[in-house]
Design a protein that fits this description.
It is a single chain. With 89 residues, the chain is of the alpha+beta class. It has one domain: Hypothetical Cytosolic Protein, Chain: A (2-Layer Sandwich). 33% of the residues lie in helices and 22% in strands. The protein contains 3 helices and 5 strands; from the N terminus they run E-E-E-E-E-H-H-H. The termini are far apart.
Amino acid sequence: MAKKTPLRKCIGCGEMIPKKEMLRIVKTKDNEVKFDHTGRENGRGAYIHLSVDCFEKAVKSKGLERSFKMSIDSDIYDRLKKELMDIGA
């Protein structure tokens, strides 16, 4: 029997795609929101396509805020967007 590929839902566009093709955003115990490049960091995770488009949709629809059950400051969104662009989205 073939091994199942874990799928995750993009918080921007809502599409289900393999976990390995997505970027994980994590909320740590200290309520710090950041990208998890390893995919193994402790905390609540949300997944997003590696695209600025999906990030903008997630901001507009408050996808991250819903996933993490907290409000997120605009400076955190700005930092995440800059980091996303540095990665090459």
